[in-house]
Write a structure and sequence with these properties.
With 456 residues, the chain is of the alpha/beta class. It has a domain of 205 residues: Rossmann fold (3-Layer(aba) Sandwich), CATH 3.40.50. Helices cover 37% and strands 13% of the residues. The protein contains 16 helices and 13 strands. A six-stranded mixed sheet has the order 4-5-13-10-11-12, sandwiched between helices. A four-stranded parallel sheet has the order 8-7-6-9, sandwiched between helices. Helix 4 packs across helix 8, helix 8 packs across helix 10 and helix 13 crosses helix 14.
């Protein structure tokens, strides 16, 4: 249980506002229903004035955040709200909608790392969160801001909505239900796992399964939210990035404020890599770190517009019609946060790489054999890691972090299909289906001996 203490240590002069990511003049309140720059239609970003934040030096920021990790003092026990000064500092405590998101474990993948020839491979298990994915980190911020907006006299918002490939809808539905705010979910029919579909259904959201793909759902949700009565909760809304940026800060805190050499993250709509970069940039500006990690965006080959753009040096934004992929949460052909992600890759000397369906399935299965239980999207990141190690880009002693964006239990259909060797076009080299035997002790002993001998 959280204790009832609800104090904020915010300096009164701190300023946080929306501003145009492309550089247009003008600031906008984060409590305005606004997703794009009214002058040029570029995405917005939540900007924190640095001067008030520099009133506390880097060491004191580190001490403050370390002291709050997993505390029972509301709302600081959240991995997001434990950094509230760097998120939404003027949000009233009674409007924080939190379910202890964040503070996920940084798993030392020792056996898997040795198979890759790496001395330090770490997996940031963001799926160990309330709804099973990193999307909780952004949704706690967005829904909290909406809750505060709905207390304002001029507020037009009646509900929140998102298009989703699965994880975003689960997070929005859960946090909206906790806050008592109606949620409307647009899903591409037949293209999300059963576990992902049932989450918003169970949380009482209005679930609309459309006969289109994610990009089609995204187009419709933007049109539906134009009148401001329904608030858009997709990652084109910069409030989501504010929560998701805490992943990078949390990784540094878990490394005693040291920066890893590489961070590899599976990407679709590109909000997550943009958020990682934003968190590291803020730490750089405030002197908590003195270098950036190299960021790697990992895409599925059948939904790889960012990779195609990277190959041309980002000379043009590429859009594709995303094909069927086991990594359905990143099946996106026209990513919204493209410009932000380009900046993230360029400023960190980053890389964009892709993985085939066979590569991602095999990488996921091999990781599971070392004790993990990976979602297919983490499989994409691990397959990309293997490619970069084999090319000599990532060195044996580089401290490398792979972001696992969701829990494998949300993708049991993928797991079952792999081990039953029924995934179309996939050779299940690591398949390990159960063996059905008679209830006879000798038969069981013979099978055990055969299997252990084969492993020897």
């Amino acid at each position: 249980m959280f204790s009832a203490a609800m104090s904020s240590s915010e300096p009164a002069d701190q300023k946080v506002y929306f501003r145009c990511f492309a550089g247009c003049e003008g600031n906008h309140s984060i409590y305005d229903v606004l997703y794009r720059c009214p002058k040029c239609n570029s995405l917005l970003e939540v900007y924190h004035d640095r001067a008030p934040l520099r009133d506390r030096n880097a060491y004191k920021w580190q001490q403050l955040f370390d002291s709050r990790a997993s505390t029972t003092n509301w709302p600081f026990g959240s991995g997001v709200w434990g950094m509230r000064e760097w998120v939404i500092p003027d949000l009233r405590d009674e409007n924080v909608v939190s379910m202890c998101e964040g503070n996920t474990n940084l798993f030392w993948a020792d056996r898997l790392g040795k198979q890759f020839g790496l001395s330090e491979l770490w997996i940031k298990l963001c799926g160990n969160s309330h709804t099973g994915s990193f999307k909780d980190l952004g949704m706690t911020v967005l829904v909290s801001v909406v809750k505060q907006m709905m207390t304002m006299p001029s507020n037009p918002v009646q509900a929140v909505a998102c298009a989703s490939t699965g994880d975003t809808s689960a997070a929005l539905a859960a946090y909206a239900a906790y806050a008592g705010i109606p949620a409307i979910i647009f899903l591409p029919a037949g293209k999300v796992s059963t576990a992902q579909l049932i989450q918003p259904v169970a949380n009482g959201a209005h679930v609309l399964a459309l006969d289109t793909d994610f990009d089609g759902c995204m187009k419709i949700v933007q049109e539906v939210t134009e009148d401001h009565s329904i608030y858009l909760a997709n990652s084109m809304n910069s409030l989501r990035i504010e929560g998701q940026k805490t992943v990078g800060i949390e990784i540094c805190r878990q490394f005693d404020w040291e920066v890893p050499d590489w961070i590899i993250i599976p990407v679709g709509n590109l909000g997550n890599i943009s958020a990682l970069h934003k968190g590291f940039r803020l730490m750089m500006d405030l002197g908590l770190i003195n270098r950036m990690p190299r960021l790697v965006a990992a895409q599925a080959e059948r939904a790889d517009p960012f990779y195609q753009s990277f190959k041309t040096g980002f000379s043009d934004k590429t859009s594709v019609t995303a094909g069927e992929t086991l990594a359905n949460a990143i099946r996106i052909g026209d990513p919204v946060s493209y410009e932000k992600a380009v900046k993230a890759v360029q400023e960190t000397d980053g890389i964009v790489e892709q993985a085939t369906e066979q590569e991602l399935a095999a990488a996921s299965a091999r990781a599971d054999l070392t004790g993990m239980f990976t979602c297919p999207h983490t499989g994409v990141a691990l397959a990309v890691l293997e490619k970069l190690v084999n090319r000599g880009v990532i060195k044996p002693n580089d401290r490398t972090v792979v972001i696992s964006t969701a829990h494998g239990l949300k993708f049991t259909d993928f797991k079952v299909g792999y081990h039953e060797s029924t995934l179309e076009g996939i050779t299940s080299e690591c398949a390990n289906p159960p063996v059905y035997l008679k209830a006879n002790t000798q038969v069981v002993k013979d099978e055990i001996e055969k299997r252990l001998s084969a492993k020897a």
